[in-house]
Amino acid sequence: MNNPSRSSISIRALISRFLRLALAYSVAVAIFFSFFSAAQAKTKQTIIVGGDYNYPPYSFIDKNNVPKGFDVDLIKAVAKKIDVNLKFVFTPWAEALNNLKSGKIDLLLAVLYTEDRTRFFEFTIPYNTDYYSIFSGGKSGIHTVKDLQGKKVIMLKGDASIENFIKPLGLLKNITYAISYPEAFELLLSDQHDYILAPFAIASHTLKEMEEQEGKSLDIVSTGETLLPSLYRLAVKKGNTELLTNLNDGLDALKLEHEIEAIHQKWIEDRSTTWQSTEVIKYAMMGLIPIGLLVIFSLLWSWSLKKQVTKKSESLRAAVKKAEMANIAKSRFLANMNHEIRTPLNVISGFSQALMTDGEKRPLGEEVSKIAQNIHTAGDLLSDIIANILEISKIETEKVKVHLEEFNLKKIVQAVYGLNKVRALNQGVIFNYGYDAEIPEFIRSDRDKLQRILSILIGNAIKFTPNGKSIWLKLKKADGFFVLQLEDQGIGIAKEELSRIFEPFAQVDDSLSKKYGGTGLGLAIAKAYIEALHGTITLQDQKPQGSVFVVKLPLKHHRANSE
Predict the structure, then answer these.
(1) Which of 137, 181, 249, 446 shows the greatest Cβ crowding within 10 Å of its Cβ?
(2) Cβ neighbours of residue 440 under 8 Å, at least 6 residues apart?
(3) Burial class of residue 384 (count of CB atoms within 10 Å of its CB; 0-12, 13-18, 19+)
(4) What are the phi and psi torsion angles at 155 (to 5°)?
(5) d(CA 151, CA 169)
(6) pLDDT, tens digit, for every residue of 239-253?
């Protein structure tokens, strides 16, 4: 007969053993998943983010040495979208710019576009707008831009407005540089300087914090005049197209989900100052007119010289040579004027874009909105015209130089495709893309010229393709070459015009230039670059509407005729 007490003890022992095993199993599972999650986190790419250490409310280091601000929250939201880890390195602004140039950081927060910076950086789409204002002592006597001549200005070292505002207005002589806005305001309070030019939100935030620390109101005021729009972007080192594309995708996603607006409301107070629309339009038109006249004069001059060279006979060889030298001088002049022309044009484009953005919050009236849109459109068109004229002038003046390097072809093509996809969608054009897997991952060629060739051909296809139609970009391998084929359902090109389509200033029909704009230089530039890369471009016959451009380029470019 069984002993009941022994039986109950045995059952309790079994239950106890089972519970111990279950507990051990749970701990083992928890440890496994902990290690698995840690290992998974380590596989994520870590991006080093640079920014200004004292630029509130956009970026700053708080008392606990933690990065904070609008841009910090923004890049964290982008990082979630593109699934990467972040490491922050905040320094004085001038040092942050140098860190991106040298590759010590992968991207930089809150960067303003300037022509000079495009030599080193590439920029994302804008994600925030602020406006520069004048901050001065209450007794300075500064009330408007007209009062700035001869006055002493304090600027943040590396600030883009030095190129976009201070230099064009001839105010370079009296600059004192500060490494942060708190330091700038301290200098202003010392009565040795007259004013600070700074983004309104940043300067107002800094001034408010200083007044709270002092426990009193400081004798510093803003003139209330809106001078210069600041379109903030993320910047990456030139050539880092993969990161640039990912960042743009992340920003697009945040905009669609209105997350940027929510982050903005958390950190930044909207400025109550009203735009003086007529003044902005007046300044923009004053800038557009002389630049437009300069471009028209240059075009007429070039056309006149070309006509003279064509008509001169052998007996006038000396005169022809003189005209050619003048043409070269003209081209060199235009190339040297690149920065001086683009700087005011960027200001005009920024003003008009900011005016349109402001109109979304506070209606400006149908007439003013239409004028602002026309200015912005004209500015973009003029910028493209200037860029093409400068480029063709350089091609005509000197031999095209090829800079060879090994790079991932597919990533370059995908980056250009991504940048043009939105433009196509906005025009109602369906953009299709195909890539042959047999093409080697890396090729040896000129990265920048290949990007320019792609941009010209794709831009033309989008421009001349009507709403609802399609374009196709296809790449394939062919005997040591890769073939780029671009097919569109656009307006097509008549057979009798095929022979001159690649000539500079060629438009197949005068009515097209009136309808679509452009100078007829794009295909000439593309052809020059393709030939410099030892390639060919042809235009195949197509049905009544549409065109097929075929570009053939070597996978391995040789060193001859390059540097």
Answers:
(1) 181
(2) 409, 477, 555
(3) middle
(4) -125, 150
(5) 12
(6) 898 898 889 888 888
CA distance linking residue 339 with residue 80, whole number of Å: 38
Are the C-beta atoms of 142 and 195 separated by less than 8 Å? yes
Distances (CA, A) of 540 to 319, 456, 488, 532: 41, 17, 12, 22
Reference 550, options 457, 413, 442; nearest CA is 457
Kindly state the tokens that stand for 109: 């927060």
- Dihedral sign of CA atoms 179, 182, 186, 189 in order: positive
What are the distances in angstroms from CA 495 to CA 113, 283, 491, 548? 43, 46, 13, 13
- Long-range pairs of 284-287 with CB within 8 A, sequence gap ≥ 24: 284/348, 284/351, 284/352, 284/375, 284/379, 285/375, 287/344, 287/345, 287/347, 287/348
Task: Tell me what pLDDT residue 483 has.
Answer: 92
Token digits of residue 347: 């200001």
Dist CA 256 CA 247 (whole Å): 14
Counting every residue written for the chain, the total comes to 563
pLDDT in tens, 319-348: 666 666 666 666 566 555 555 666 666 667
Q: Can you give the pLDDT at residue 161?
A: 73
The three-class DSSP label of residue 550 is strand
Instruction: Write the DSSP symbol of residue 165.
Output: I
Task: Tell me the per-residue pLDDT of 364-420, one tens digit each, with 9 for 90 and over.
Answer: 677 777 777 777 777 766 777 777 776 776 676 665 778 888 989 988 898 888 888
Q: Are strands 107-112 and 46-52 parallel, antiparallel or unpaired?
A: parallel
Q: What is the DSSP letter of 271?
A: P
3-state percent breakdown (helix, strand, coil) of the chain, nearest 5 = 55, 20, 25
Q: Which of 293, 295, 276 is nearest to 338 (CA)?
A: 295
Question: Whose structure tokens read 């890396």?
Answer: 442
According to DSSP, the residues that pair with 181 across neighbouring strands are: none
Structure-block tokens of residue 296: 């028209």
- How far is Cα 453 from Cα 458, in angstroms, rounded to an integer? 9
pLDDT in tens, 419-435: 888 778 878 889 998 98
Residue 538, helix vs strand vs coil: strand
Q: E-strand spans in 352-391?
A: none
Q: How far is residue 462's CA from residue 472's CA, in Å, rounded to a whole number?
A: 10
First to last CA, the chain: 102
How many C-beta atoms surround the C-beta of residue 292 within 10 A? 15
Query: What is the rounded CA–CA span in Å between residue 229 and residue 129?
Result: 7
